[in-house]
Each structure stands twice: as C-alpha cells, then as structure tokens.
Amino acid sequence: MNVVKRGKYIWLLMLGFILSSNYMLYHTQIGVNLLPIKTNAVVLGSILDLMIMLPLFLMLYSKKFSIKTAIVLSAAGCILARFLIPNHLLEPFVAITWIGIAVEAALIIFELMLIITFVRYMPKIIQKVKLSTLPVVFSFPKAIDEYVKNNPIIHMICSESLMFYYAFFSWKKTPPTGITLYKNSSYIAFQIMMIHAIVIETLGIHWWLHDKSIIISIILLVLNIYSVVYFLADIQAIRLNPMYINERSMYLSLGLLKRVEIEFNDIECVIEDSMILENKLSKDTIDFIVRDFAKVYPDMILKMKKPVKAILFMGIQKEYSYVAIKSDNPTQLKEIILNKIENRHIEF
C-alpha cells in the first residue's frame, strides 16, 4: 500500500473515531459516567469536532477542498450535533445548531431556484439542442450550461434527463453512420440479458419479500425499475452515438457511462505499443472500451498535452491525462486522428 492510500485510510479512521467517540460519550453508560458535572466544555468540544474536524477529515479523505464544501459540511456537523448530543446538554449552544440548519435551508432553497431556472429555460434548451449538429448526449449538457448555473445538482438532473430521453423518446431515431465502439462485442446482448435477469428477479423475489417487509420490497421494486430504464437508455445511447468528429474535436461516448470531448490540438501523441496497451491502465486514464466476456485491450491510448474533462455517471466530472480507445475500426480511426492532428498543427 503506497503512502497516498495509507494517508487516505488514516483520514477515514479519524472520521470513524470522531463519530464513534462522540456517540459513546453521550449514548453509553461508560460515556455518561465520564461526563463531568459541568458539561459545557465537553459539549463545546464535541460541537467543534463535528463542525471543524469532521469536515476537515472528510475533505482530506475525498481530496475535495473548497469554501462551499467546508460550509456545507460544517452546517451538516451542526445538524448532526442535535442528534448525537442530548437536548438538555446541548441547550446552552442550541443557537449554533440553528445556524447550521439555517445554512442548510438556504442551500436547499438555492438548489430549488436552480431547478426552477432549469425548468423555466427548458423550451429554449430543447430548441438549442435541435439546432445543434452535435449528438444529443453532448448538445443537451452544452445547452444547459448556457442557461443554467454550473452546479452538481444540475449535472445530475441533466444526466437523469438524458436517461429518460434515450429510454422512452429515442426509439424512432436511426443510428447515424460513424465509427462505433460496440458492434464487435456482445455488449448489447449482455445489457438485454441483464434486463431479463432483473425482470425475473423482480417477479420472483418481490412477491416473496412483499409478505416479509413491504417497505424493503417497494424499495427494491423501485431500484429494479430504475435499473431496467437505465439499461434500456444505455443501449439506445451507445447505438445512437457513434464517434462524432469535426475539424476541431472528437466526441467520444460510451452509452450513458462516460463521455468526453477531445480537441485534436490537445493530443500530444498516439500510443500503440502493445506492451503498454496490454498493461493495467493508470488511474489518470479514462477508457472507452466495451467490456466483453473475454479480456480486451485498447487499440490506442491518446496522451493529452493537458488533462481533458470527462463527464461520468450522474454528471460527475473528472479530469484525465490519457484516453484509451477500442473501436470497431481502429485503422480508420488512427488515420483520422493523425490527419486531424497534422492539419491542426499546420493551422497553428
């Protein structure tokens, strides 16, 4: 285990220590016996643990540092204090916890305003998508970014909207021509097999579980329905979105799982060494490889001059320095990429 991973688990251990120690202090007989007569100092220490140390360790563990994240986590720590610390002990500091609730409420209102803005501009967004030459999986998020503030909640709504569009409203569309990623694999057959398995599991287990626990059976039913919708949407998304290439960029998508726009001018080189291709891909490599029943390797890896931003499941954004690709026509794709790189260099 390297130093980075070891450090990550240390922060996770510290998170567990803070939560468990504060829980034991107020909710076990041993902890109650340890409390002094004047508990204000101890309670204040617990509040500082939950407002400062807990958010700090969470950010260190996730490696996401921002003022907004710190505020949100601190407010969440205030709310958590109301559940961990008994009311009669928390009473002198109750104003602090109300501040946390007020902050969380303000953030929720802000997110709701963004969602209202999203709905308000939907007709304009749809019109923008219809006029765009890009595939819907790329043009829809771009249109949203023009009208609505960039926000994780909006990214998630965008991702879910794409899923429902491909699952229910795309079946009359004809797949465009272009280099594909899935035709030389059993990917779609595997997705259909998964849908059949989920339907059979739902029919068999749901009714048995319904007599045992109605709540659990309903939760599983909703999850299974969502999974079927997702697989249907993913099948359509990968069928209707072959690689889209223009003079400036290449647009790659693997169903609804991931997508990326690669500018040819940002490609440093194309790696084709079989020794490298057959090695385990590094963490800063995003792969557009359809997983099959057999072991498969990329046809090429694009090394980028600067990290490229990819959109993952649920709208999560992440940057990568390498892009691994396995296509149904690697020779044609390599020729196109090299020609585009050369032409871009000539222009610049």
UniProtKB/TrEMBL annotation:
Q: Which UniProt keywords apply?
A: Membrane, Monooxygenase, Oxidoreductase, Transmembrane, Transmembrane helix
Any one GO MF term held by the record is: monooxygenase activity
Q: Where is the signal peptide?
A: none
Membrane-crossing residues? 9-26, 41-60, 67-85, 97-121, 187-208, 214-233
Protein name in the entry: Beta-carotene 15,15'-monooxygenase
The organism is Domibacillus aminovorans
